[in-house]
Prior knowledge:
- The chain has helices spanning about 30-60, 70-100, 110-140, 145-170.
- It is mostly helical and about 180 residues long.
- The protein has 4 helices and no strands.
Amino acid sequence: MTSSDTPPESDEPLDVPPPSAPPPGWENPAVRADRRLVELLQELRVLQTGVQIVFAFLLGVAFTPRFAELTDTQQDIYVTTLLLTVVASAVLATPVALHRGLYRHPGKARIVTVSARVAQVGLLLLASALTGAVLLVLDVVLGAPLAVAITGVVALIFASLWFVLPWAVRRPLRHDHE
């Protein structure tokens, strides 16, 4: 063994972290942007499954014998809901496309901000598509008056849970600052 093969001797124990190690829980803006983007993409993966299920249902409906019995209004609801589902799918996949297209781009924080806004639009489109699917099915099964009333409640639930609740939680409460 030559002198170049032996490690230099040190009095410091090997298990001590370097003095420049950041404290636990600390993250710089680049690490934070990476984490937020990964979290957003995971959330979108869950949403895409829902979009695919609704889209598959809607595609199947058109090829059933009863589809010809739908009224003009029901067919309009069907086409609108189908198109909302397709657009929701495209919009919810946009952050993935941004991530791929701008891979290793230095402006990751901006990509996260834009992707989060696009995802909100996608949620609105998905809520509209799901509400349209409920309206179509309930109209066929229960008739228009009851279908409209129940669908209104469903739309209110989506609006409350997906948009109003996050807004309310994000707002600072007066007693939080006391």
